Structures are given as structure tokens and as C-alpha cells.
User: Fold these one by one.
Assistant:
Number 1:
Amino acid sequence: MNRSDAIIEVDGVTTVLDGHVIHRGLNLTVYRGEVMALIGGSGSGKTTLLRLLLGLEVPQAGSVKIFGHPLGRCAARDLERVRYRWGVLFQHGALFSALNVFDNIALPLRELNSVPDSLVKPLVMLKLAQVGLKPADAFKRPAELSGGMVKRVSLARALILDPQLLFLDEPTAGLDPDSAKQFVRLLRRLRQELGLTVVMVTHDVDTLFAVVDRVAVLAEQRIIACGPLAEVARLPHAFVRNFFLGHLERCAEDDLRRFRLSLDDTSDDGGVPALLREAEETHH
């Protein structure tokens, strides 16, 4: 890949919070269309790095560019334009308890006021179908949803503005194994259908095996390794050894390929009904 394909460029970043150095000289590049996972031990700076990428923190040194725009150094209006090109799925969903599913998903559309009111309903229902939920789910409150459904609704909201870039914070945390598998299968399908670039923070090895192209390891205040799973998993570093303990035999390319093929079935296709396809075509 060349620099022209770079969606995210983190160059020489140093981050200091409350007098503590979190990152020192950190570099990371994420390319168009790839799924990048950020892994690291507790206190390694994963969450802070994610906040830097979202423009919620500003580094003391170095630069963060997304879509070629330097975060923290551009006009507020330019930053807003960039933010509309990405979606975020927070670890616990961050749904508004006072709003039903429909209104939670519609919120970014209404805040931006970028589409006519007549298109809000078909667009919301389209995203609901894309994440494998039923039309009747639109009228439920967050308290009525299972953990897996909360993740799907949150994902639908993250996708409602048709972003090119998706940030996921521990996307399978709190899910039982079956729900986690279904959610990862959904991510695989949406990544292929929508051509998304994805950056995820995760500690779930199965999620890495299922969907990730490259893994970046945070340790010692920087990215100590970044590459394909099979390469990173064999890094002679204490955190990496412990993280992949018992899983090294699954990291070979043939084993990864077989595992991913096992996920590519149609039991959770979440297909888009014809009526919603028509709505999407009308929107475009």
C-alpha cells in the first residue's frame, strides 16, 4: 500500500494526561479498506489513542491526520465535515434510554438535518435491516434489547450517515459466545458490502481471527509492532505471548482462512428487503 491510500496517519505523537506520558513518538498508518485492530495491556493507551483519532484529545507533539485533515489544527467547520465521514460504536452502545430504537438511529440524521424528513424513515429502516434487525424492533426501548441487539442498534446508528471509516471500541465485549459470533459475522458482511475501513480496539482473540487484516500492539508508550496476525502473534514480547497463549496454532494463514470460511454462511444474512432497497435507490 502507498501513502495515497492512507486514511489515518499518526506521526510522532506524544500524549500527556495529568502529567503522565501515555504515548511517546507513536506512529500508525491505517489504509483504505483494511480492518486494523489495536491491542495492548491495561494502561497501554488504547483508549487514549482512540480518543486522539476521534479528535477528543489533542497530542502534545506530533500529528493526527484523517482523510488528510490534521485533527486539532483545523477549523471547527472542517473538523465537523471530517467527523461526518466516520461512525463510532462505543463499548456499551451509548444508546439514549429515553429514545426508542428508531429515534436513536435517526438522531445523527436529525442533528445534521442533511436529508428531507420524508427520507428519515426509509433510511433508518434500511440500516435496521442491514444490521439484521426486524422492523418491529424500531419501536423498542433500549431496556428491552438484549446485549447483541444493543450492539446492532448502535452499529446501525454508526452507519446511518454512510461513513467511510468505522471505529469500534470492544465490539464484542459483554456478549455471550453465540451473540459475539453473530456480531462478528455481521461485521464481516458489512465490511465487504460497504467497503469500510475499520479501526477496532479489542481484547477478543476470536474477533481478531475472524475479521482483522493487521494488528497494532501498544506497549511501552508506542506501537511496538504492526502487521498481519500471523507475524504479530509470534513477537517475542511478554504481552503478546500472554495475549495469544494457546492460540498460536490458529494463526497460520490456512487455519485463519478455514476459520473465516466457517463464518461465511447465510444464517445471519440480515438481508435488505426489496422495499428498503428501493428506498436506498431513491435516496441515491
Number 2:
Amino acid sequence: MEFHFINPRKNALVYIIKILSGSLILWYGLRALGFPEPYWAMISLIIVTEPDMTVAKANFRARLINTISGAIIACLCLVVFGATFFSMLIALTLAVIVAMLWQNYPSNWRLGPATVVILMSAAFAGGGLHQELGLALLRVTEVITGSTVALLQTVIYIGVVHRLQRDA
């Protein structure tokens, strides 16, 4: 019996190895540094992970731009309007406007507004502006760390592939 619908893509093993090894590095590394649950780092690792350096760099850039712009907009709205649903709607509107007006903004622009919702919804349950802004900074740090680990893994992967091709 053959299963034609089960046909792994060319780089399936590469993705599995990079995502699992990166997740282990991020989970245990960031927890050792005091990050209680580094889910955002792992999500960023998954989003940025690619075997091709050009695509990995583009994913890294997009993740960075979207997360930072979403975090800045969310923090500004928290400071100006407080942690309310109305404030979240304003921040969402601003995040979409920034993405639509900024020339050459990354194509996966929806990550910016998604960041706004995640940060501001966490602020609804927060214990004050200081804690909410600290949470935003923590999330941005996780995103940058996860994205950087994915990019570094791509550099290592490309180096290993070139070395194996050279030795063959």
C-alpha cells in the first residue's frame, strides 16, 4: 500500500532539526536568563527559519520591523489612552496605517497589528503601566532573540552544506 499524499517536502528534515534544536536553545537558554515562558522567541524562530539565507534574512527583517512597530504603537497607546479596548482599536488602526503608508513595508505586515493585540490584551490584565511596558520590552527581546537564533542556524546550515559539498 502506497501513501502518495504523504510525501515530505525537500527540506522537511532541515526544518525539523532547526526548529527542534532552536526551541531547545531558546527554551532552556532564555529560562536560565530569567525569561519565564519564552513562547514568543520560539514563535519567532519558527517564522524566520528557512534553509535559504535570502529568505531567512527577509523573514528576520520583517519579524523585527513588525514587532518593533507594533510594540511602539501599543506602548504609545497604553501611555496616552490606557489599557482599554478603545485604546487597542486606536493602536490597531495606527499599526495598519503605518504598514500601508511605509514604502517597502514587509509583505507580512499583519504581524504588526497582531503584536498590538497581543501586547495590549496582556496589558488588560496587567498591574499598571510600568508592568505593561516591561512586558512589551520582554516580548520584543524574545522576538529578537528567537529571530537571531533562526538566522544563526541558517548561517551554520549553509556552512555545513558548503563544507559537505566541497568534501564530496
Number 3:
Amino acid sequence: MYDKDRDRDRDRGRERDRDRKGPRFHDRTKCRFCRLKLGEIDYKDVQTLAKLTTAQGKMFSRKRSGNCAKHQRSARTAVKRARIMGLLQFCG
């Protein structure tokens, strides 16, 4: 008897899903640099690089920053160059 109740509840959930209109999943948001159609990130653009780092100077992950793999690599290189030039801090 318990299994029948569970199956009936599961079927109701499927019916509810079928009644919904529109896509179930949202489109992925594009990387901010892809939206601006930038090839590489400039190490001299300190304001943009500061948004990609924490107050301690650590870089945000791709998931947190929302960058694609290509631009995350470019950002990492730009941050390293900016740190060496003295434009960004190495640590807090």
C-alpha cells in the first residue's frame, strides 16, 4: 500500500512538469568579456582586475567570477603581470 501511494505522488509530479510552459532550464549567462567581445584582458586595466580578486588579493574561481575558460586564463596572466608591475597587491 505504501508503494502505491508513493507511485501516485510521483505521477502527480510528472503531470505538473508537463503542464508547465516554456523551457525547464535557463540559458547560461555569457562571460562578461565575451559579451564585450574582448580578445585578451589588459593588465593595465586595474579596475577590471580588482573585480576579479578578493580583498586579500586571491583570484575568484571561474564559477564565482562567471568567466569562460579562455578569459579566466587571460585574467590570470593579466593579474600576474599587474602584480609584478606593482599595480595590484600580491596579498592583503
Number 4:
Amino acid sequence: MAVPRIPGRPLFLRVPRVSSCFPDAARSAGVRRALFTARGHSAYPRPMASRSTPSPSPGRAAGRPVGSVTRGTTNPNRLRRMDRWIAASHGAALRRAAEPVAVDLGYGAAPWTAVELLARLRDAAPRVRVVGIEIEPARVAGAKPYEREGLSFRHGGFEVPLEGGERPMLIRAANVLRQYDEEQVTEVWARLCARLAPGGLLVEGTCDEIGRRHVWVALGPEGPRTVTFATRLGSLERPSDLAERLPKALIHRNVPGEPVYAFLRDFDRAWAAAAPYASYGARQRWIRTARALSAHWPLADGPGRWRQGELTLRWEALRPVG
């Protein structure tokens, strides 16, 4: 069978070992099936794909997508931490929805993140559909060979165009606002939240190139709700290392006098105080750190999520000053 290829991308026919290239995927049968059964594709291409992310652009002609094409990077399995959190925290809402639709906004030159999102969400909500939305038409055309039942791709931007004016239960926008002005964030959040169905969720954040460090904001139609810090614990020297992955709304606020600065300071202090627990492993040290923080900061999760290398706070605790 001929293997469809994305324009401008080299084609690799040798299948790498799942356990070495995608360690998290190897532990998830749903994701593993998605990786190696997508329309005859035998494996992911090795190089990183360019990632196109829409940015606000007032004054666009009527009918044109809202946003403009920019460059970024993505890798297979990069968004696994965000996906797993979404499935755990929003899976029940997706199961209850009559028409559960999730959007992968700005998926980039290769559709891997949308393929993975479908597999992970269907473990929690078997009827969910995923729509990948890209502002660059050529990238939409390149993703079409990967369409299947429950997965489709559309041309668009921040207006989130869906069939028949459908409203999504989830919009995931990862590494989309990183390169834009802080002043644009509120406008984009409001636009995207207005497109959500009742009970819907917007998840917007930033991660490193291989998904070891990730921070995101979860928003409902009413606005921001929580901020989640997630990391591969074995690679963490101190919690404030996550500061470089703060979402755009917070990254420039990591200065004295701002709540996020105070939180990361306390996070590091609690981590240092929990050093004796390191002999039991980084996970136990992280859990002890979270327990200490909960005495002074409004954490929104508990040990079940802490064990995953996550920690979630109420947005009000980190809301920027002024």
C-alpha cells in the first residue's frame, strides 16, 4: 500500500521500537494503535514538524480565518501530560454530552497531536470526535489522509469553524499563544470560550519540545479556572524550572510582587524541605511538597494527580496583579 506523505516531509519506512521512541505510548494500547494504524502509516517521521499557530488579527476580511500563520515545533507524544489531565478531569463531561466534540487548535504541519488526542480521549469518552483546525490550507490538505471515524481536519483559526455551527466541549490550544503579546491573551481566551458548548473546557498552555515540562490554564465559558504544573519528576531539579513554560498570561509576571512569583518561591522552598523524602523517590518528594503547599495555597487536586507529577491551583491564587 502506498504511504501518504505530508508535503515537504521526508518519508521513513523503518518502524522504530515503540518502547524507545514513545515510552508513554507503549503503556497505552489506545495510543499505540493510533500511532501505527493511521491510514497505513507505519511510523512517525523522525524530524520535528513545523507547527502553525493562529494569532489574533483584527480587520480580517469576512469569511477569512481569524489569525495568521507562524512557525513553531512539535513532536509526537509531546502533549501527553495535558491529554491525560484532560481525560481525567473532563472525561465525565465528554461522556455526558450528546455530541462530544473536541478541537485541536493549531495542530501544525503534521497531525500527530490530533491523532493522539482522539486515542486518549476515547479511553474516557468512547463517543468523542476530534476536529483538528489549522489556518494554513496546505497543512489541512496534508492531514486529510489521516482522517478516520471520529477524526477530521478543517481550515480555520480562532473562530473555530465547525459543521453547522456546532460548539465544542473541548478546545485544546497548546503552544499557540507563546509567541504573541500578553495583551492579546484576554481577547483570545474570550473568543475561544465564547465558542464552547455549555459545560465545555478550554485548555491553553505551553510545554517543552518533548513534553517533560508543561504548564496550562483551564478555562470554562465564564473564564479561567485553574493552572496546572506538570513534569517528568525524574528530570526535575527544582519546581521553579517550570517557570520557563508558564503560559503567556503568566510568564512575564514571574517577578517580585506577582502571585506566580511568590508561588514558585514557596514551591522551591517546600521542595527543598522535602529533600529527605527523595530517598523514597522523586514522586514521594513531590507528594510531600504538595501537601506542604496545600497549607498556604488553594490546590485544586489531590494525591491521585500528584502521583502523576501534577499540581493544580485555583486561578484566583495566581491571577496577575493589575
